[in-house]
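thought: user wants a sequence for this fold. calling inverse folding tool.
action: design(structure=
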């Protein structure tokens, strides 16, 4: 089954062609990051307008690189939530137009389910159930992936997402936007023990997380040194920050895996590219005798191949959208789950 997949939830316009879920025939991504860097963050209207300008050409390119024509498409999958509403609407309406014109099914895909599915592309042997840590610019979740379409959140950030926190810390350190990757590189040469940063716990909710206090602590350290005109060891602050984020995430993931009887752990989302978090997860998984799945960097960030892959499993589960499909800025990845 050939699926044309569309992803426009934030500042990447992405179109991919997948076959039977896990085989990627083409995956095209147009990142607008440079356009938003000027403003220090994503400007929603600029994102929407660039999706409008790019999506048609990118679809032609995805078809050409997959070696197929529009007639070969069996279904259209599209990200419909969560994300920037104007940006999502561009992809949803484009997908509707295509599905209507080609008379093929339209499959709605939750963005975070797509991130989880990036692991199915990277690891052909991986099948649910497993535990998944999702850390992206907009979400920080620990989820129990019971089946391809039954996903239960067992822990989440109560405030900022991990990626948001990386981006804010990077911004005050003068590393530009989006700064997660630059902060990661800077941290390599720093002393991770130099700054003492908070690792909050949420009483009674062992798998929930909080990142806003950590973000504020970094901002205060940078502002204090500026006000006192003292030199700041930015590399060590970056290293102390990265290890604090990792300390918030990794032990929770390990104890959730144990409590929910998983010996397979996957990670997903842009922050999964972080070298410190990856290294700590590798060590912890080894120590606890668990199999760890970490997708390659090109599948960690936003892409449409992951939407095509998840779209296939949503299709098999019977999900179809009608022409009144709407986009939603927020939506939980699970529908019927009891939180801890
Ligand atoms: O998954 P993603 O591409 O977008 C969303 O769906 O939100 O994630 C983007 C986030 C940004 O916050 C970016 O700074 C962060 O992933 N990121 C990183 C690294 N590479 C990207 N954060 C930490 N270390 C990295 N190496």
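)
observation: tool returned 340 residues.
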């Amino acid at each position: 089954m050939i699926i044309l997949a569309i992803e426009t939830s934030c500042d990447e316009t992405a179109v991919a062609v997948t076959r039977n879920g896990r085989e990627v025939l083409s995956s095209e991504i147009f990142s607008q990051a440079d356009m938003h860097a000027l403003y220090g963050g994503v400007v929603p209207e600029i994102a929407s307008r660039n999706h409008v300008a790019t999506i048609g050409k990118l679809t032609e390119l995805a078809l050409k690189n997959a070696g197929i024509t529009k007639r070969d498409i069996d279904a259209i999958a599209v990200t419909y939530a969560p994300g920037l509403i104007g940006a999502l609407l561009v992809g949803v309406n484009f997908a509707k137009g295509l599905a209507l014109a080609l008379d093929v099914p339209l499959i709605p895909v939750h963005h975070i389910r797509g991130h989880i599915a990036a692991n199915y592309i990277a690891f052909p042997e991986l099948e649910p159930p497993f535990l998944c840590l999702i850390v992206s610019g907009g979400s920080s979740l620990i989820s129990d992936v019971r089946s391809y379409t039954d996903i239960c959140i067992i822990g989440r950030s109560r405030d900022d997402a991990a990626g948001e926190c990386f981006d804010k810390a990077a911004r005050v350190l003068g590393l530009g936007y989006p700064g997660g990757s630059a902060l990661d590189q800077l941290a390599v040469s720093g002393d991770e023990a130099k700054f003492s940063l908070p690792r909050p716990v949420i009483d009674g909710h062992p798998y929930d997380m909080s990142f806003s206090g950590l973000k504020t602590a970094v901002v205060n350290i940078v502002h204090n040194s500026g006000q006192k005109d003292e030199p700041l060891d930015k590399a060590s602050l970056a290293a102390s920050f990265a290890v604090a984020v990792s300390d918030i995430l990794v032990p929770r993931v390990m104890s959730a895996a144990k409590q929910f009887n998983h010996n397979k752990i996957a990670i997903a989302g842009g922050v999964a590219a972080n070298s410190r978090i990856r290294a700590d997860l590798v060590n912890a998984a080894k120590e606890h005798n668990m199999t760890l799945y970490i997708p390659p960097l090109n599948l960690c960030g936003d892409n449409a191949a992951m939407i095509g892959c998840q779209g296939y499993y949503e299709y098999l589960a019977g999900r179809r959208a009608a022409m009144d499909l709407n986009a939603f800025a927020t939506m939980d990845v699970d529908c019927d789950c009891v939180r801890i």
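thought: summarizing for user.
answer: Here is the designed sequence. The longest helix spans residues 234-259.
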